């Protein structure tokens, strides 16, 4: 059985029968006819024989990966951000911001290649831009560069602004479990004003496994 | 020939009775009545309550004989200003009312097992009558919808039939639109979506109640319910159902005492 998290930029795949690691494929490289047995994510309804709502997959994935009863899980994707707040292991609150968080992950990746920035070497800035969305925040970068900031410094301030937005969106908790591709961006992670525990890119795939388990279709326990 | 009377909000029963006596045809201007795109409405700011923009769109493009627009505590300040705009643009009488009716007619539809979309259709239709709603047996709620009838009724199809209706919609059926106590009531034992139209003053109450509710989700949307809003509601209802299934003993039953808090708890 093939599980898939069809993200806007990247698709995460996992084959149940094999003891392999999940794979990551750029979504634009997928064959138009490519289908998964169980899917979540932006293109799940079109590419999955069965689909699971992204927030549900996120909530279930977090439940399987986080041992704390009361905590917050934040998923930062290419085009949106979602959060789940657990209380007593149950979902107490949730949010999905597809408007003001639009294109944020995508924009951070775009800037990396456009300005040739290596996020692993950029220091966390002490101040940042007030960024409500990726597209509007871009003008801050251009303005800063025009007034003498280095491109790297301006991009870092932009990333900080995006991280602070996501933090406030999640309810400004003391600790956040982070999901999504931005877990691999040390600058982004370092810009949160709270403890951040990166869970990686496969939380939603974990949620799909949880979905199968709920339906009694998971034949062997997952690690 | 029947007069065509537009209403906005819930005019007092006395007005509805008069219209019924003269056998006028009531048109609810809060609801989409014409197959026109919203951008045809140009007299209000684009960032404004979608219900009131719909009112403007209807009123400016329909052949009406007069309009009653409620601007009292049972509606909103925005309606007061929209009334001014309508009075300036229309040549027919635009009559403002301040509904303070306080006699409760009950809200059996809100507590029934009808599909939620049918519930809200019946509640909004009921505004045109001076009679109480027909009797419906009360159901046991497994979900709650708090708020005004949405501009986009399609989002109501996401809810189970056992959804009870709270907030201003319940006040509508009770024919007491300014009853803030009834409007503020919700059942803490029932997972509830607190809905308000974007840019409506009721967003403050909806968000506040959702934050205080042990299982509440605040949702606002503008003209149409987008995929994000739908997914959020879908996820909330499904996860609430899962939680109730996993821990049925955790649910607390409320007592049917006939007060606004008369809903049985979710299982």
Structure report:
Chain B: Residues 246-267 are annotated as: Disordered. Chain A: This is ATPase. Chain A: It comes from Candidatus Electrothrix marina. The complex is a heterodimer of chains A (223) and B (267). Chain A is α/β, with parallel strands linked by helices and 223 residues long. Chain A has two domains: 2-68 and 205-215, no CATH class; 95-200, Nucleotidyltransferase, domain 5 (2-Layer Sandwich). Helices cover 34% and strands 26% of the residues of chain A. Chain A has helices at residues 44-47, 54-65, 104-114, 134-146, 151-169, 186-190, 203-214, and strands spanning 2-6, 10-15, 23-26, 36-41, 48-51, 71-76, 81-87, 90-97, 175-179, 195-200. In chain A, the strands form two sheets. A five-stranded mixed β-sheet of chain A has the order 3-2-1-4-5. In chain A, helix 1 (44-47) links the parallel strand 4 (36-41) and strand 5. The longest helix of chain A is centred in the last third of the chain and has 19 residues, at 151-169. Chain A is globular. The two termini of chain A are 17 Å apart. With 267 residues, chain B is an alpha/beta fold. Chain B has two domains: 4-97, 3-Layer(aba) Sandwich (Rossmann fold), CATH 3.40.50; 116-250, no CATH class. Chain B has eight helices and eight strands; from the N terminus they run E-H-E-H-E-H-E-H-E-E-H-H-E-H-E-H. Chain B has helices at residues 13-21, 50-61, 77-89, 116-126, 168-174, 180-184, 202-212, 227-246, and strands spanning 4-8, 25-28, 66-70, 94-97, 143-147, 163-166, 192-197, 216-221. In chain B, helix 4 (116-126) crosses helix 5. Chain B starts with a strand and ends in a 21-residue tail after the last helix. Mean pLDDT of chain B is 90; it is low at 249-258. The interface between A and B is medium-sized, with 17 and 17 residues.
């Amino acid at each position: 059985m093939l599980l898939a998290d069809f993200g806007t930029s990247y698709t995460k795949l996992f084959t149940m029968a094999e003891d392999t690691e999940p794979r990551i494929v750029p979504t634009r490289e997928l064959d138009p006819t490519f289908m998964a047995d169980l899917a979540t994510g932006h293109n799940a309804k079109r590419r999955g024989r069965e689909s699971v709502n992204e927030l549900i997959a996120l909530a279930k994935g977090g439940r399987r990966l986080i041992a704390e009863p009361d905590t917050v899980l934040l998923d930062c994707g290419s085009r949106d951000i979602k959060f789940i707040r657990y209380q007593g292991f149950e979902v107490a609150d949730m949010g999905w911001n597809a408007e003001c968080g639009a294109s944020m992950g995508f924009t951070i990746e775009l800037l990396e290649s456009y300005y040739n920035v290596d996020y692993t070497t950029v220091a966390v800035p002490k101040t940042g831009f007030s960024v409500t969305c990726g597209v509007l925040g871009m003008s801050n970068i251009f303005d800063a560069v025009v007034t003498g900031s280095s491109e790297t410094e301006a991009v870092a301030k932009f990333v900080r602004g995006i991280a602070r937005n996501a933090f406030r969106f999640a309810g400004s908790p003391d600790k956040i479990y982070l999901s999504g591709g931005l877990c691999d961006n040390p600058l982004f992670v370092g810009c949160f004003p709270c403890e951040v525990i990166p869970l990686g890119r496969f939380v939603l795939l974990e949620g799909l496994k949880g979905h199968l388990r709920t339906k009694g279709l998971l034949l062997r326990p997952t690690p | 020939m029947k007069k065509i009377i537009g209403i906005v909000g819930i005019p007092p029963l006395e007005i509805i009775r008069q219209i019924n006596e003269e056998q006028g045809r009531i048109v609810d201007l809060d609801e989409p009545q014409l197959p026109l795109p919203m951008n045809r409405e140009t007299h209000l700011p684009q960032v404004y309550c979608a219900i009131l923009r719909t009112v403007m769109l209807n009123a400016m493009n329909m052949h009406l004989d007069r309009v009653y627009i409620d601007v009292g505590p049972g509606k909103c300040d925005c309606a007061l200003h929209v009334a001014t705009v309508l009075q300036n643009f229309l040549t027919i009488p635009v009559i403002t009312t301040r509904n303070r009716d306080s006699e409760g007619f009950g809200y059996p539809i809100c507590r029934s097992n009808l599909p939620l979309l049918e519930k809200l259709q019946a509640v909004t239709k009921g505004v045109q009558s001076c009679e109480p709603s027909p009797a419906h047996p009360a159901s046991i709620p497994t979900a709650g919808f708090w708020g005004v009838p949405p501009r986009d009724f399609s989002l109501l199809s996401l809810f189970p039939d056992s959804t009870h209706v709270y907030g201003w919609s319940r006040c509508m059926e009770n024919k007491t639109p300014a009853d803030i106590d009834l409007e503020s009531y919700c059942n803490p034992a029932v997972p509830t979506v607190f809905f308000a139209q974007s840019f409506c003053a009721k967003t403050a109450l909806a968000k506040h109640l959702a934050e205080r509710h042990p299982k509440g989700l605040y949702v606002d949307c503008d003209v149409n319910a987008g995929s994000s809003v739908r997914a959020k509601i879908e996820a909330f209802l499904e996860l609430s159902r899962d939680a109730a299934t996993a821990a049925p003993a955790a649910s607390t039953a409320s007592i049917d005492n006939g007060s606004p808090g008369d809903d049985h708890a979710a299982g």
